[in-house]
Amino acid sequence: MLDGKIALVTGASSGIGRVIANKLAGLGVKVAINYIDIGDIKADAEATVAEIKAAGGEAAAFAADVSSEESVTAMIKEINAELGPVDILVNNAGLTQDTLIMRMKVEQWEKVLDVNLKGAFICTKAVLKGMMKSRYGKIVNIASVVGFSGNAGQANYSASKAGLVGLTKTSAQELASRGIRVNAVAPGFIRTAMTEVLPETVIDAMKAKISLGTLGEPEDVADAVVFLASHESDYITGNTIHVNGGMYM
Ligand code: NAD
Question: pTM here?
């Protein structure tokens, strides 16, 4: 169904993004693996490409900092030349810098908003030209349960994710007439590097709030993303699928 489509997954060298990229590639999608070129992340992005190719899929890695318009514009040029125009955009890149508001520095606020929210805006804008031309597009924004519930210690992160939901609804309204659907997936607590750093006591406290009694896996989120990227969801736009085991309803 998705055979031959081209997807860009931001922050796809690890965690949820990596699983999304693998699942899309398994459905015949050519996947652009975006990564930010710091530390060992390039090697992780290359490993993601290698595992997709080993499974018979098509992928290539592209560096860009999603919070920089210049960097994203250059990346989209490269993707257009190497794979073609993007049909499916998954705004997955994100980070946390948790602390209470009292202690939160403006720089910590700005960094998280820059990557999680401004980054999604920049990437959305960058792929629109191609999508409008082909009168087709699927954009999936990875929000979070805390964008709906709030979470002490995550003022910057929860605001960025609530903002993503607003961006999702507005883009859906602006772009529907061009055949572009925009939706969000709001994961609950998912087992990735982002949650691995949390102490056992915090994980246990979280589990107590989850109706299904366990953390989710990246696959659970990726399955919802694949649905929103596919034709099976063509009559859905401006919406959010919650993948949280019933921790917030
Ligand atoms: P992760 O840290 O493995 O993935 C985040 C990715 O974003 C990393 O690969 C990182 O390198 C990349 N990234 C960070 N800044 C970037 C930038 N400026 N440009 C490009 N890439 C950048 O963690 P994850 O859990 O897989 O998170 C994926 C998404 O899911 C994030 O948006 C996160 O907020 C969201 N999410 C995660 C959970 C969870 O419990 N793990 C819950 C809700 C939402």
Answer: 0.98
